[in-house]
Design brief:
Two copies of one chain form a homodimer.
Chain A: H1 18-22, E1 30-33, H2 44-52, E2 60-63, H3 72-78, E3 82-86, H4 92-99, E4 104-105, H5 113-118, E5 127-135, E6 141-143, H6 150-156, E7 159-165, E8 211-217, H7 231-249, E9 260-262, H8 266-274, E10 283-286, E11 289-290, H9 292-299, E12 303-308, E13 310-311, H10 315-323, H11 325-328, E14 332-334, H12 337-340, H13 343-349, E15 352-356, E16 359-361, E17 366-367, E18 370-371, E19 375-376, H14 383-389, E20 392-396, E21 400-401, E22 406-407, E23 409-410, E24 425-427, E25 432-434, H15 440-451, H16 454-470, H17 478-481, H18 483-491
Parallel strand pairs in A: 1-2, 1-5, 2-3, 3-4, 5-7, 7-8, 9-15, 10-12, 11-13, 12-14, 15-20, 16-23, 20-24
Antiparallel strand pairs in A: 5-6, 16-17, 18-19, 21-22, 24-25
Helix pairs in contact in A: 2-3, 3-4, 7-8, 8-9, 13-14, 15-16
Chain lengths: 498, 498
């Protein structure tokens, strides 16, 4: 069955077991693997690596597109394989190791990793491990459910291991659009001016002789863990849709809005689902990950085209979408994450970026990554790629967490991923703050009045009033600015009296 | 004399006094004025406005390119004319009013103001006031020593006042390259692929009937206040040049480096001066402001071409450069700040961005704007436009300030303008920290070992060691993180014991 998928027949003698292929990865190597938002990761070789590390010392620097599925980061962490990891992860075991200082994690804007590789500012991968549905007659690699950084990893690495995954339908071929920016100083503009432009090839073009191993596997992607909308996420979606209506009424957007980007996760997914019953038509997406909501919107006749870097679906949606891919294929494209997230394209297209905040402060600075200013959750991902250059940089979160012990709106965030300069709109289930054109004191008023949970509003008003009395463009009382986080850490509630 | 400069003769009947022109500006209006880094600002009309405000209520929202010279922001502030001000300023009187909450200041990435206007996310200027050396036969405006936001302001405003400044030599004509991105959703790539590309027109194209007043004045630009290099700035320059040499040796840059961007001010100017005696050749600049050092480098045969948005020179340099402009003209271009700072172009060209930090922390987060987390200095300016997408994002500062009462390297910055994700290289006179590809704990080690003044090194090591014991990807002790700033505020020294 896999033999039909290796269409350059001279490569068939490279087929070997995962253990044999994994043996090509040596202690101390830098390895680039496919995988983005738990979609399309190489599965057999990393598993074999984790096994091997039980017998012999094996520490590598691992770079991927984004997060891996199938508990691979967990297995690699437990086996002690990961010395360094970039640019994103979502695994709870790896997270613990990162926060313990055992794995050096480099948290990057997702569009930047391969740019830094291209310029030799990061060590190039010695070897790349790429999941594929097929290898073409020319020896080019056809990716599966994600492109991520796979193309550049395969181009930069001296050796490439291909995992042919027969669990993926071969009809994925044709979905991908592989475009790699040319080298500086003679780089030309990225010739993409519409979300549905195709500017590259459908397979990753590398010299066939770089393919040193082919491993066959049949392990499917992990299903998405996105939760269905609840009252709060529905509330957030409603506020945002009302805002979009006002923007359309004011003539600032057309009724098809701008190309939509939605971060991964339940809140952003709920917001996108909310568009199904909205008055907007002919929507488009220019995003990283295409989730259930993308296909719900296509089915509802609302979404005309979706560009992403990966497809990550729930169990419910998975068989239906991939079993009927022909229904969607002319409405989809998967691009390298450098292109799906590229600042040049994001600014040109005028994207509406919707991403999740861990917390934000009264001036609109957003923390996307660090609990209590210290503990990494997942990473900044693509949120910065989009927010900086978006037509609208929107951040969403529930107003409280942990049963009300935590307010998502605080006097000063404990870590900044997106500065006040880059944040246009903040939304919680309480309401929406439009920060465009406002000075910090005005931003604080808008945020406190619109986004804060009632149980925290008085306290934030007190802080803000007292800070204003002391003056400053961005009034703060430094002695109290992080007190809410300290209270939480020491007493379990942000407003616990000391 | 001015009559030759108004080459569309039908416009000559629009010539009037500054008071008459200023009367077109009504209370409550939004006004867009030329001016960028104290170069090419309209001078007569704002002065007349400040006078008029002594007689009658007059409050406006003022947007410019960047900072104004000739004490105009001071005069407008003292007269109470400024209700709102964006996107940048450097005036001490205005700064006080901003920090007192009397003027609402919107601190923006300099590439973004006109983008937000174009999309009607900011209120369009009712009227624009643009300094010019001439008006062409078609009624187009030839700017003076800056382009800044002038072109878009003139295009967006219903009415335009032109100040013909006869103190500027008419040979400035031809220096400018006015390109305005097309509207979304059909925007095309910015067709600029080399620093010396010319992609627009030499004058600002507006319908002549929008010119409602022409005012003649002869007030020169204010001279630059940049200080000559001192031991510390020379030390910073030396560290950076040594680093560039290592980058060239490692094959990561050619001997002409990449296009250089240098922020305004004495440190960046000193760094650029340091290149005169360096081994690098055929240098280019793609920057905002061209300072003395630009012309020193051209004279030294080191700099092949400089692209900027303004020219701001010291008294020493001013007469020489503008008196001999033909010597430089084929090596210079002035662009709208949207283009000089555009993320698309910055990423494409691979710019080396050198900007000044107010302070940075052990993890590489940079504060460019807020003293003690509250008081605005000037604004973020273009530093974010460049740092985010630069080939190298470099921030420079002296390691201590106020006679050693302040360390420029702190446990946690009191305000974040550039996050750890966007900062590659930090330099003080003590040394240089190369943060590329490092995890936070590694960044801290590199910064403390290389950039910190010896009088603060032990204290930072103690903080970092204690924080690491508590764990976290980015270890912090929240209760102590801002203690240095609190000490400074309350006791005048960052390490003063409580």
């Amino acid at each position: 069955m896999y033999r039909d998928r290796v269409r350059m027949s001279s490569l068939l003698d490279k087929v070997m077991t995962a253990d044999q292929a994994a043996a090509l990865i040596k202690d101390g190597m830098t390895v680039g693997m496919s995988g983005f938002t738990r979609a399309g990761e190489a599965k057999a070789v990393p598993k074999a690596l984790a096994q091997r590390a039980k017998q012999e010392p094996l520490r590598i620097s691992l770079m991927t597109g984004a997060s891996l599925g199938n508990d691979l980061d967990k297995q690699l962490t437990e086996a002690g394989v990961l010395a360094r990891r970039m640019p994103f992860q979502v695994d709870s075991t790896l997270r613990k190791a990162i926060n313990a200082g055992e794995v050096m994690f480099i948290d990057q804007h997702l569009s930047e990793t391969v740019e830094q590789l291209r310029n030799h500012q990061l060590k190039l991968p010695d070897i790349a491990v790429i999941e594929a549905v097929a290898i073409t007659e020319e020896g080019h690699i056809v990716p599966t459910t994600s492109v991520g950084n796979s193309a550049s990893f395969a181009i930069f690495a001296k050796q490439v291991i291909v995992e042919i995954n027969v669990a993926h339908n071969t009809n994925l071929e044709g979905l991908h659009d592989i475009y790699i920016p040319t080298y500086r100083p003679t780089r030309t503009p990225i010739p993409l001016t519409k979300v549905d432009d195709r500017i590259g090839s459908t397979a990753i073009p590398i010299p066939a002789e770089k393919i040193v191993a082919i491993v066959v596997n049949d392990q499917p992607d992990s299903p998405s863990t996105v939760l269905p909308p609840d009252d709060e996420t529905q509330g957030i979606a409603n506020h945002l849709i009302d805002f979009f209506k006002r923007e359309v009424d004011a003539g600032r957007m057309s009724n098809s809005l701008g190309p939509l980007q939605a971060g991964i996760g339940s809140i952003a997914n709920a917001v996108m689902c909310g568009l199904i019953d909205s008055p907007f038509e002919n929507l488009t997406m220019y995003s990283e990950v295409l989730q259930d909501s993308t296909f719900d919107l296509i089915d509802a006749g609302k979404l005309r085209f979706a560009s992403g870097s990966s497809i990550t679906l729930s169990t419910r949606r998975n068989a239906d979408v991939f079993g009927n891919l022909e229904r969607y294929k002319d409405k989809l494209v998967l691009r390298p994450q450098e292109i799906s997230n590229h600042p040049e394209v994001v600014r040109r297209l005028g994207i509406i970026g919707i991403n999740t905040a861990l917390e934000f402060d009264i001036y609109g600075n957003v923390n996307s990554t660090h609990v209590g200013g210290t503990k990494m959750m997942n990473g900044i991902g693509g949120s910065g790629d989009f927010a900086r250059n978006a037509h609208l940089a929107i951040f969403v979160t529930k107003s409280i967490a942990k049963g009300g012990n935590i307010s998502s709106v605080v006097p000063m965030v404990s870590h900044v991923d997106h500065t006040e300069h880059d944040v246009d709109i903040l939304v919680t289930e309480i309401g929406l703050a439009d920060l465009r054109g406002l000075a910090p004191r005005e931003r604080a008023r808008a945020i406190i009045d619109n986004c804060v949970h009632p149980s925290y509003r008085d306290a934030l008003n007190s802080y803000f009033d007292a800070a204003c009395k002391r003056g400053g463009h961005t009034p703060h009382i430094l002695r109290e600015a992080l007190e809410w986080h300290i209270n939480l850490e020491e007493r379990g509630h942000m407003l616990a009296a000391s």
